[in-house]
Amino acid sequence: METKAKSTQTRLASYLQRVSNGELLNFTVLERELRKKSVPQSSIDRCFSAQLLKPNQYRVQILDIEYFDSLLNRFSENSTVNRKSAALSGDSHRARVGGSFLLLRNQKTPQPVVVWFEDYSFHCPVEPSRYVLLVENLENYIAAEQMVLFLNQNGWAIGSEQVDVIYASGNQITNQLHRQFLEGYKQIYCLFDVDLGALKMYKALCQMLTDKTINFVYPKDVVQRLHKSERNMSTSERADLLNYVGLSVELDELIVHMRDSGNKLEQETYIEL
Q1: Which are the contacts of 56, defined by CB distance < 8 A and separation ≥ 6?
Q2: pTM
Q3: What is the pLDDT of the chain when averaged over all its residues?
Q4: Percentage of the chain with pLDDT > 70?
Q5: How many Å apart are CA 181 and CA 223, to the nearest integer?
């Protein structure tokens, strides 16, 4: 029994670390292993959002960083292990990565630069602008100038020279290492998909940056776009939207439109070809 319990612990620690590293994984296995350890399904739903990309391969977003850290500490074979010491034993993926990076570009630096984070400090090779636009999808990030124009065309009048565009890369942006850097911006704009996963990520940012104004950006004609969309929400997704009411005025309006249409929307549709 002890050997079996240790095997389950090791497997769970490995899956949690893969989530932390942003790797694709079989989320149903992670859920099963967590439930074996008496983690409530409600806590799993609160902590993770999973998107199926191909058979048994999910992109998993961390929605509650603090709770996720508690899971890592609870189920790691050694809660004090770091990546270097784990590497000596041939299993560096057991340990959390101690650093992170974000790709930043703006009108002055159209070529992306790397903002590096380590031990809750950061190095940015350029002077950050007053505002930041967080873009979830790589295609939209590549079209950064068009996305800043999109921002202005849809109710947020900001000079393009004042906006940094950062590649949010799924749940990576919610990493606690980024907190101090993001707090330096006067205002934060989120250009995410119009779906439940994006709302969960937005909520995680609001919880991490409690003193900042964070706006969820979407097009003025979102009602028409949603009704034309072929991406349908499940009944449970539609019901779960109510958990995000009250975060901001614009998000409350969006939730009404999403529930009325029963659909969701990908941000790639904002790109003019």
Answers
A1: 26, 28
A2: 0.69
A3: 85
A4: 87
A5: 34
Closest CA to 191 of 254, 242, 243, 237: 254
Nearest to 214 by CA among 243, 174, 160: 174
Where do you find CATH 3.40.1360.10 in the chain?
Answer: 99-270
- Return the HEC string of the chain: CHHHHHHHHHHHHHHHHHHHCCCCECHHHHHHHHHHCCCCHHHHHHHEEEEEEECCEEEEEECCHHHHHHHHHHHCCCCCCCHHHHHHCCCHHHCCCCEEEEEEECCCCCCCEEEEEECCEEECCCCCCCEEEEECCHHHHHCHHHHHHHHHHCCCCCCHHHEEEEECCHHHHHCHHHHHHHCCCCEEEEECCECHHHHHHHHHHHHHCCCCEEEECCCCCHHHHHHHCCEECCHHHHHHHHHHCCCCHHHHHHHHHHHHHCEEECHHHHCCC
- Specify the higher pLDDT residue, 192 or 7: 192
Q: Given CATH 3.40.1360.10, say whether it is the number of domain 99-270.
A: yes
